[in-house]
Amino acid sequence: MIEIKIAIDEVDYEGALETLYPVLAEYLSEKTENSLLAGILSRTKGFPVKAVKAGLKTLPQDTKDELAVLCLNHYKEKIVDSLVNILGKQGILLKVLDMEMECRKEPDDRYFSV
């Protein structure tokens, strides 16, 4: 088995919010164990996306990252399918067993940019 980890930085949270807000508002507010996130998500239901974007700017980076991880995990199956399809078109056939997405507080020196 081969394990691949991808480090992501500089996410455009405001740009992605229109796509991700319905996921956050309807699905994740009930599933998150983080009481701060649950409270934020339950209070923003029904708010216009523009108002939520303004509020998003005030959140700490760690909270924004946790929201992004929740969304990535929600779309995990689609992400894996896309990865397999892209690699398959390049002649690299494989099966993805799992994909792990989590928040890390500090960068890990083991990862590098390509």
UniProtKB/TrEMBL annotation:
It comes from the Bacteria. This is Uncharacterized protein.
